[in-house]
Amino acid sequence: MKAVVFDRCGGPEVLELRERPDPVIASDEALVRVRACGINHLDLWVRAGLRGLDIEMPHVLGNDIVGEIEAVGAAVRHVKPGERTLVLPTLSCGTCAACLAGDDNLCRSYDVIGRRRNGGYAERVAVPAANCLPYPENLSWERAAAVPLVFLTAWHMLVGRANLRPGEDVLVIGAGSGVGSAAIQIAALFGARVIATASGAARLEHARALGAHDTIDHASEDIAARARELTDGKGVEVVFEHVGGPVFERAVAALARNGRLVTCGATAGGKATLDLNLLFGRHLTLLGSWMGRRSELFEALKFVRAGRLAPVVDRVMPLAQAAEAHRLIEGRQHFGKIVLVP
Ligand SMILES: [Zn+2]
Known about the structure:
Elements: E1 2-5, E2 16-19, E3 29-38, H1 41-48, E4 64-72, E5 84-87, E6 90-91, H2 97-100, E7 111-112, E8 124-128, E9 132-134, H3 141-144, H4 148-161, E10 169-172, H5 178-189, E11 193-198, H6 201-210, E12 214-217, H7 223-230, E13 236-241, H8 246-253, E14 255-263, H9 276-281, E15 285-288, H10 294-305, E16 313-318, H11 322-330, E17 337-341
Parallel strand pairs: 10-11, 10-13, 11-12, 13-14, 14-15, 16-17
Antiparallel strand pairs: 1-2, 3-4, 3-8, 3-17, 4-5, 5-9, 6-7
Helix pairs in contact: 4-5, 4-10
The chain binds zinc ion (ZN).
The site of zinc ion has 7 residues, from α2.
């Protein structure tokens, strides 16, 4: 089969399309013929080299996989060859106290397909059969591959962590990213008033089309001052953050009294300044969030199937152009997800 692999960590240029043997499946696994694979920021971090992450080389990236099941191991009962599937990207042990409580994202062996284990930048991939979820039949392969990780992450952040309630004001930072475009829709679905930040008129228009009630151009406006203006000086109850760096301080400053900020990333830098006077004086809560519970993807998929949450695909590219796709994401010129097709 053809696969995009890399032998050493580095820039997009380390990604190469190569001929590889088909994966061999274990008794509890399924072999999936990949029809589309979404790209996530996580792929870029793994490719560049994550501290403490030892991966076997050559490595195949790719968390968001959809395709047809070609074969299953002897112990597999709930899926069979010929079925279409959307693959749950997360992995956990299934036996520890956290897993048994349904908090599988807190499992000590929690991981994501394509991080240590080979992923979907390939024509075929072996996955645990338990990860093969029913396919959302209302979506094309390319659109379905834009769903799993961002909707799981955004759902866990807003619903699981921030406990979003109807009528609250939510500030979504970085509407142009996959996770930002999912957050706007989830927040609107829950009856919140959504204020989204992005740069440039076209992206702000796109954010409004997804359900944002107001927008802030973060290239030309101060997000904290503008968020306060848009809420009559109150500030927002919830900030959805994943950018970090200098943005984090402005995001905290946008919060109303008793507000909470939830974050799942730091694409602009992992170090930020925090004014402790604001933290206690305004009674704020800061929430970290990592991926999500598998049950939360089931919840989000109900609304995806009903057409009430829709993946946003910026463009579809052939697998051979994976390096070019990574460059586009690093250049932040996209809106929504970039999806690879073998
Ligand atoms: Zn576990």
